[in-house]
Amino acid sequence: MPAAFLGHGSPMNALEHNSYTETWQAFGASVERPRAILAVSAHWFVNATAVTAMAQPRVIHDFGGFPDELFAFDYPAPGAPDVAAEVAEIARPTPVGLDQSWGLDHGTWSVLAHAFPAADVPVVQLSIDARQPLEFHVSLGARLAPLCERGILVVGSGNVVHNLRRINWGMTVGGFDWAQRFDDAARESMTAAPGDIARLAEHPDYPLAVPTPDHFIPLLYIAGIAAATGATPEVIVDGCVMGSLSMTSYTVGAR
Length: 255
Known about the structure:
255 residues; two-stranded parallel ribbon; alpha/beta
């Protein structure tokens, strides 16, 4: 079973049909049906490592200013308490809490709604521990790699470049020079040395490209899986939009 990092961009992608959603749909159709999905979303960024462990996770509408249709959007995928326990076991020595309160946020359901539109594959979501350095997340991703051999699809959802304060809404295609440079540097690291991905924090454009680490960190989990398995990540979506947002996406181990 492969792993994937999907640049999710706007939650409106859940309702729209565009080149990104078509790629997510093609990815979901191309992989063997997973036993379950482990999602690492930028939007569960807390001071702990936890995994959702309820039988029926709630759908979280964690945004504002969007149409009522988006707030009404439902993705009623079942949970998988047994898979949550499996994740907690394989992550040792990192303690992983079994959470009963979070659910599925839009970082997860906006992409899975296209990849697995029937919402019939169980989904558990892993939080991002905001207290930890980047290297921690690469290492934890590497420890999660055996899940892929057990039929669990690991999906990271975020954006390599995510600076909402610098967005140019009229620039529908392309990125500012600093955004494109950082996106290119991330691609070089992912495809040549994914285990060293945390070194991108030293890149001169990192402060602008990653003003907060929440959307960047899901990429590190997929990089860790790539490093642990020796697989070379492949780019399935390429490039920046609105100046300061990257939609570049990767798969690891996909055919």
